[in-house]
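Chapter summary example.
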Amino acid sequence: MSLAEKHSIIIKQEAARLGFESCGIAVAQRLDEDARKLESWLSKGFHGKMQYMENHFDLRVDPRKLVPGAKSVVTLLMNYFPSEEQQRDAPKIAKYSWGIDYHYVIREKLNELLDFIRANIGEVDGRGFVDSAPVLERSWAVRTGLGWVGKNGNLLTKKNGSFFFIATLITDLELQPDAPFTTDHCGSCTRCLDACPTGAIVSPSLVDGSKCISYLTIELKDALIPDEFHSKMDGWMFGCDVCQDVCPWNRFAKPNHEPAFTPVPEILNLSTSQWQEMTDESFRRIFKNSPLKRSKWQGIQRNLQAIKIV
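The structure predicted for these 310 residues follows.
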């Protein structure tokens, strides 16, 4: 067994101990095909007002520019599917945001993994990323053999669907790469395209982000959500899970075992009127460690207004 193989095995074992569902490895290199796709997506204006998507293009498509001397990209998946359900009269909130902000949780685990590598393999350079830097996470997940990009634009796995976070560790350590995932298991299914309330999935695996309810309720910072979408919000106050909820592969989703993802009680139980009556002070206190703080109290109230006016 080569040193690269041995190192890869112990890294995957530690990743599993830290609670990651899957771990795959690829050689760090420029993603030429993905660069062309990203350029086309941006040229169509599908990023809406997310100007940051236009920044650092070279960093997005080449991990060696993010971590000089990078040799390997390690991709990790962490399950967030909950065992609980929201009350029927509660405004809908995307499942990923029910517990503590995943950035805090996963960043700590990535730091632990990097510390483990340095303690057990040697001094290496590396950086961990979780939706916080210009990294094409889904592309790397496919290249590391963890799954395929479905028609809804999400990474899908045969084992447990798509309700998981993707994290990336880029390092100058030479590791044994896994075989990339090459098979699309969506077949002729079009449930996600048919179910999208706003028609944001314009064709298989191509999403117009500017129409996505997640974009409208989280990323869009305008004072009001455009009138044309009010009748299509489908009750979603923060994010949207429709294209995942209807996906047949998510029948295999299993509840997560991460205590930090235990739902905030208010997310499960508050009615629309209770959300509307909530003060800014209460919101900041209850959701200080929640992804919902990204929209702030004002954003939540704006979103509720869009849901109400139908």
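To summarize the output: The longest helix spans residues 102-120.
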